[in-house]
Each structure stands twice: as C-alpha cells, then as structure tokens.
Amino acid sequence: MHDYFSGMLSIRHDGLSISEVVGIYLGPTAKQFMRLFSVVLLIFVGTVFLVGPAKIIDGMTGNIWNVWIWVAIILVYYVLSTLLPIDKLISKLYPIFGVAMLLMAIGLVIALFLGTTIFQNWFQRI
Q: What pLDDT is stored for residue 72 in this prediction?
C-alpha cells in the first residue's frame, strides 16, 4: 500500500520524489527532514546489501578471508554490474543459477509431499 500510494502521489506531481511531495503538503521543514531520512535509509539499505552477503560468504568459505575483503569484492561487483552490460558480466553464470533454483524447487516439493521424516532418516545415515 505504501509503495502504491507513494507512486500515485509521485505521478500526480509529475514524477517528483517523495521528499518533494512531502514538501508540497507539509512545508519546507518536513521536506528537509524527509530528505535526511531518505539519505539515512539509503545508507542503511546499502550497508545491508554489502555486509549481509559478505558475512554469509565468509561463513560459507570457512573464514578464509576477512569480511571486509568480501565487502570490497561485492562492492567491485556492484560497480561493474552497474557499468557493464549484463551479458558481459554474469551471462555465463545464469544457467548454473537456473539449475540450482530448479533443484531447490524440486527438493522442496519432494519434502512437502513426502514429509521431513524421510529426509531426517536419510541425513542421519550420511
């Protein structure tokens, strides 16, 4: 609902950002507050999308590198994926991702219909 309402207000005001729309209805003080709030929120979102995957990768690789090295690698990837066409960067990896998604979906369907007890017994034997 929030996204729809924000988009609707933006369209009604010729594509203005949410802080500009807030300024129209609530005044310049609220507009400045909304600008600051938006910047802080963007910093938080950027941090989550950098540090979160870096910690996951660091845990999966057995902490062979520091988390900040993974953050740097992810940041370089983000910059490259923004500047380069997608087919130059990761088009060769997409089939692998597709197969992984299909295998996960098949595993979930099997687990859903057969129950988890079969998988628990199978994993205990391994």
A: 92
The residue assigned the tokens 């060769």 is: 92
CB–CB of 28/21 below 8 Å? no
Rounded CA gap, 25 and 30, in Å? 9
Surface-to-core class of residue 89, CB atoms within 10 Å of its CB (0-12 exposed, 13-18 middle, 19+ buried)? middle
| Cα–Cα distance for residue pair 117/121, rounded to 1 Å | 6
- Model confidence pLDDT, tens digit, residues 14-73: 888 888 888 888 999 999 999 999 899 989 998 888 888 888 888 888 888 888 999 998
Output phi, psi for 52, to 5 deg: -60, -60
**Helix segments in the chain, DSSP class H:** 2-12, 18-26, 28-60, 67-83, 86-89, 94-114, 116-125
pTM summary value: 0.55
Tokens linked to 31: 């507009």
C-alpha–C-alpha distance, residues 122 and 126, integer Å: 7
